[in-house]
Write a structure and sequence with these properties.
Length: 318
């Protein structure tokens, strides 16, 4: 019995092996023809993982195109949701950097290409800075009245936002509209962060977002428009010299009894500290009106211009 089985396998062994190899080749050919390897593309959102806290993260690339290869039958039961792409931010530093795009795909697929291969990601640290809340009075009161005093619930506010935007903020302002009022009134004044040119800086948050302004009016006072004279304080570094100081606004309306304001042609500011001035800069300072004189806004901006002192030349030889 055993010899019969042995004879069965050994008889025409070479022909049987060739037949088996031919059968395998034919099977592979048929299978490849019926289920060939093809390529496909999927567009998927680009995820950010392990993002550090305390940063604003921005990027232009929000999706990528994944090109893959696999058997045709594998594409039947998959779509975009079976593929994913991400960038790893765990080791990314502050600033802009190109981060490699990683791809996750179902088993059996081969990654051909991902477009783009890297994505630029910018990390901007969130910071905070305190600013004076500057209230600007606009409009006019009723005939025969003038603004005696404007007080506010908070003198200082905090601006929060990305460091790159926070560095652009120059002032925080709010507008108090007089609107022809004839008696004392109060209102909630929204605050806005602006740059040196007075344009709103978007992307930052002012806390609190508004302050309460109490406006006191006075009657029977004479009004007059006078110039504002900035007064230089002490402390300018020795290597610098003061070129000039200019108030913004240049003029302001004052009010008071006739015998007090008739002889006034200008109002001085409080001394402007120059100890921290190293280049052309702006400072918000308060006006210093004489007793009995009122102004609509006590805060003004002073533009300060300095330059380096010329080096002293040595003595000429005779």
């Amino acid at each position: 019995m055993i010899s019969r089985v042995r004879d069965l396998f050994q008889r025409n062994l070479l022909a049987k092996i060739l037949a088996l190899l031919l059968a395998i080749a034919l099977w592979a050919y048929v299978m490849n023809d019926e289920n060939p390897s093809i390529e496909g593309s999927f567009t998927v959102p680009l995820k950010l993982i392990n993002a550090p806290e305390g940063y604003q993260i921005s990027r232009e690339v929000t999706s990528v195109v994944i090109h893959v290869r696999g058997a045709r039958s594998q594409f039947v039961n998959v779509d975009e949701k079976h593929f994913s792409a991400y960038v790893e931010l765990g080791s990314v530093n502050e600033g802009s950097q190109n981060c490699r795009v990683h791809v996750i795909m179902p088993q059996g697929f081969e990654l051909v290409e991902v477009e783009p291969e890297a994505a630029e990601v910018t990390l901007d640290r969130i910071a905070a800075k305190d600013f004076p809340a500057e209230l600007i009075v606009t409009g006019a009161t009723a005939q025969g009245t003038t603004v005696a005093k404007v007080s506010q619930s908070s003198q200082t506010v905090t601006v929060e936002g990305p460091s790159s935007l926070l560095s652009v903020v120059s002032r925080v302002i709010g507008y108090v509209g007089l609107s022809g009022n004839s008696s004392d009134f109060s209102l909630q004044v929204p605050l806005t962060a602006v740059d040196e040119e007075g344009h709103e800086v978007t992307g930052v948050t002012v806390k609190p977002a508004s302050v309460k302004a109490d406006v006191q009016l006075a009657r029977g006072l004479t009004k007059k428009v006078v110039s504002i004279k900035p007064v230089a304080g002490e402390g300018l570094p020795r290597n610098l010299e003061l070129v000039g100081m200019r108030a913004d606004p240049v003029k302001i309306e004052i009010a008071g009894e006739d015998n007090i304001i008739n002889g006034i042609s200008e109002i001085e500011t409080e001394p402007v500290s120059l100890s921290d001035v190293t280049q052309k800069s702006d400072k918000i300072v308060k006006l210093s009106p004489p007793e009995g004189v009122t102004v609509t806004n006590r805060d003004v901006t002073v533009h300060i211009e300095v330059k380096a002192k010329a080096a002293k030349s040595g003595k000429q030889k005779s």
